[in-house]
Amino acid sequence: xxxxxxxxxxxxxxxxxxxxxxxxxxxxxxxxxxxxxxxxxxxxxxxxxxxxxxxxxxxxxxxxxxxxxxxxxxxxxxxxxxxxxxxxxxxxxxxxxxxxxxxxxxxxxxxxxxxxxxxxxxxxxxxxxxxxxxxxxx
Length: 138
Description:
The protein is about 35% helix and about 25% strand. It is an alpha+beta fold.
């Protein structure tokens, strides 16, 4: 039997119903209607989620990033094609309990960011439905 990878330990820790293939170094978990990519490389386990927002909304989302960095470990980034995504990582050697906590915290962050994207889509690009307390303004 192959040694458990961080992805296997994560799946077991959160009680995910599907199994990753033996030795998998990447796996997509479908959570709350979104695809969360788990990748193990360089001694780290990284979770990422692409946000459903285009380049036009990137500056608006970035306005939240500084304040959110003070509250959570998830980081807002942009991929090569200009799509925003969230990511968070932990040492691949972390135990199941630590991986479960990381996953839970990441999903809370994803929910918050997805809500902001949905609000932006509903209210239009120039308006913010988020209360001012969510943002740190210069």
